[in-house]
Design a protein that fits this description.
Blueprint (H helix, E strand, L loop, with lengths): L1 H7 L10 E2 L3 H14 L1 E9 L2 E10 L2 E6 L3 H4 L1 H4 L5 E3 L3 H10 L8 E2 L1 H8 L8 H9 L8 H25 L3 H21 L9
Parallel strand pairs: 1-4, 2-5, 5-6
Antiparallel strand pairs: 2-3, 3-4
Helix pairs in contact: 5-9, 6-8, 7-8
């Protein structure tokens, strides 16, 4: 029946994949681990235009969520650490969020969606969920938006070495690092500041 067909298309929701950073001590411990690895996949959660939390992944099977509207500011030291690679699906949108909260944006950066586009502009989607399904064979669904973001952060972490290798093999490293990623930061600042128009000329 149609009802059965529709039911069969509903996602199977997975259990929790991450820990909740509910204390300054827990956050400090995660910061220390991230600085050792030198990288973190970071996925903000936005609800009705407001930040609702941030998900992090810094190793295979290592993910955590920081709930609350102050989550981005609580990660300020991480955002401004130029020794840690920030791997952010939807990088421009993340940078706009940071600018709105007065956080200085420091690289190095990586965006799996941007890398995907450079490698194959004809790919139907460069969203992290679709990339996870294509390359990792999984795109788990969670009822909790923070847990969903944690799964996306874990996928971004796992995709990083593959995309970095493909970018290097196709000799696109300079294009990505010196053109596309800096351009993303410029576009984010333009979106944040807006564009002034002289209506007398118009």
């Amino acid at each position: 029946s149609l009802a059965k067909e529709l039911a069969s298309e509903e996602p199977v929701y997975s259990s929790s994949v991450s820990a909740r950073l509910d204390s300054p001590e827990a956050l400090k411990k995660v910061f220390a681990e991230i600085r050792k690895t030198g990288q973190a996949a970071i996925v903000p959660v936005v609800s009705t235009g407001e930040v609702a939390g941030v998900a992090l992944s810094w190793g295979e099977g290592k993910a955590a969520v920081l709930p609350g509207e102050t989550a981005l500011r609580e990660l300020k030291a991480l955002w401004e650490d130029d020794t840690v690679l920030k791997n952010c699906p939807g990088l421009k949108e993340t940078q706009v969020l940071l600018l709105r909260q007065g956080i200085s944006v420091q690289g190095p950066w990586f965006d799996p969606g941007l890398a995907s586009y450079l490698l194959d502009p004809t790919r139907p989607s460069h969203q992290i969920g679709d990339l996870a399904l294509e390359f990792l064979g999984e795109n788990p669904a969670f009822l909790d938006p923070l847990e969903q973001a944690a799964a996306q952060a874990q996928a971004a972490f796992r995709l990083l070495p593959r995309f970095q290798k493909d970018i290097q093999e196709k000799e696109m490293s300079v294009l990505l690092q010196e053109v596309e990623l800096p351009l993303t930061a410029v576009l984010a600042r333009m979106e944040f500041q807006g564009i002034n128009l002289d209506i007398r000329i118009l």
